[in-house]
Design brief:
It is a single chain. The chain is mainly β. The protein has four domains: 2-101, no CATH class; 108-118 and 125-160, no CATH class; 169-255, Immunoglobulin-like (Sandwich); 261-348, Immunoglobulin-like (Sandwich). Helix content is 11%, strand content 38%. The chain has helices spanning 44-51, 108-115, 120-123, 128-131, 136-139, 144-151, 157-160; strands at 2-5, 12-16, 39-43, 62-68, 85-90, 96-101, 169-173, 178-182, 190-197, 206-211, 217-220, 228-239, 242-248, 252-255, 261-262, 264-268, 273-276, 281-283, 287-290, 296-297, 304-308, 314-316, 321-324, 328-336, 341-348. Strands 9, 10, 12, 13 and 14 form a five-stranded antiparallel β-sheet that branches. It has a four-stranded mixed β-sheet with strand order 2-1-6-4, with no helix packed on it. Strands 17-25-24-21 form a four-stranded mixed β-sheet, with no helix packed on it. A hairpin with a 6-residue loop joins strand 1 and strand 2. The longest helix has 8 residues, at 44-51. The chain is globular. It starts with a strand and ends with a strand.
């Protein structure tokens, strides 16, 4: 499908059903498993090539900027040539080509951005679209590092509005229950919790609804020990008596205790802030500290995933190598399967 966005990423407003194209893509995991009812791993580039992206027609004034597996572009949007392994997709699942209004010439970040403070033009891009990266929502997943872009609003808005993941989900597990915690979404009236056994053959069903005013955590009980589960959360707002979904979190995979698998306790990186010259590369050297070092992490999904909040500024491979593309600032999220993550600030000069 082609999904149209407003001025920013992370704010989809229309999915063009007529643009749907069915393609056959082979799972790229190396171990034997059934085709149906199993979570597969696919490369975004492979999907884009199979779908022949150039054949998709988009509205005048729009351009395809990448691909996401979550409607609403709530995950970071990947470039079409990105070889990152997308996990958590079952047979028959959907990916979305993301189309956004074509940007002005590349000089915009160094010109309009500086002109904006104190002028009429600041108010136009400074609506909901531009506020989004600097809202309270974005501050909460991380504290110290996430506050920096807000204090630099006059110089950074055009660079940082390109979508950080604003709704993060993480979990901890015992043998028969999982505790989930997620980011508060400003304006949300409630949150829907979805989950399923990783070997389940159906989409994750709605498990419970957490209404506004509650803590942004919940516990799922009655699980099987020595198993693994997949979860995600959707934030909604009531509009004229109907639910309107605002955001969807990242999906997490988490192992219950009692078996041979363990989960990530934390993610570490060599440096939380990196400065590069255009064209240069740097490996993040990320590692996982496990809850139990004598057990294995889940193997049916990538142990670490890397996502860039602005691939026009910096890209990152599935091995954690960052390449500086253009002057500006963005962030790389390094995430473990259970949602534990580390955020790295990338500055390109």
């Amino acid at each position: 499908y082609v999904e149209y966005l407003d001025e920013s990423l992370n704010k989809g407003y229309e999915v063009d059903e007529s643009s749907k194209k069915e393609v056959s893509v082979t799972c790229e995991t190396t171990y034997a498993h059934k085709e149906s009812g199993y979570v597969h791993q696919l490369k975004y580039k492979t999907i884009a090539d199979s779908a022949d992206v150039s054949s998709f027609k988009v509205k005048d004034g729009y351009e395809i900027v990448g691909m996401t597996k979550n409607e609403g572009a709530n995950e970071v949007v990947f470039a079409l040539d990105n070889t990152f392994m997308s996990s958590g997709m079952m047979q028959g699942g959907s990916f979305y080509l993301v189309a956004r209004k074509a940007k002005q010439p590349e000089t915009e970040p160094g010109t309009e951005t500086e002109k904006q403070p104190g002028t009429e033009t600041e108010k136009q891009p400074g609506t909901e679209t531009e506020k989004q990266p600097g809202t309270e929502t974005e501050k909460q997943p991380e504290s110290e590092t996430e506050k920096q872009p807000e204090t630099e609003k006059p110089a950074k808005p055009a660079q940082n509005k390109t979508s950080v993941v604003v709704m993060r989900l993480k979990g901890n597990a015992s043998s028969t229950k999982v505790k989930l915690a997620w980011t508060k979404i400003k304006g949300a009236d409630g949150y829907e919790i979805y989950g399923v056994n990783c070997r389940g053959s159906k989409k994750a069903p709605l498990l419970k609804t957490i209404k506004k005013g509650s803590a942004y955590v919940t516990t799922i009980k009655g699980l099987k020990k020595a198993s693994s589960y997949r979860y995600y959360v959707k934030a909604y707002k009531m509009v004229n008596g109907k639910k309107t979904y605002l955001k969807q979190s990242n999906s997490i995979h988490i192992a219950t205790a009692g078996g041979s698998n363990t989960n990530a306790k934390k993610v570490t990186v060599e440096s939380s802030s990196i400065t590069l010259k255009k064209g240069k590369t740097k490996n993040l050297n990320a590692k996982i500290v496990s809850v139990n070092s004598e057990k294995e992490l889940l193997s049916h999904i990538a142990k670490l995933t890397y996502t860039s909040t602005d691939q026009k500024i910096a890209t990152v491979t599935n091995k954690g190598t960052v390449k500086a593309k253009a002057k500006g600032t963005c962030y790389i999220y390094v995430s473990a399967a259970n949602g534990r993550y580390k955020k790295v600030k990338i500055t390109v000069k």
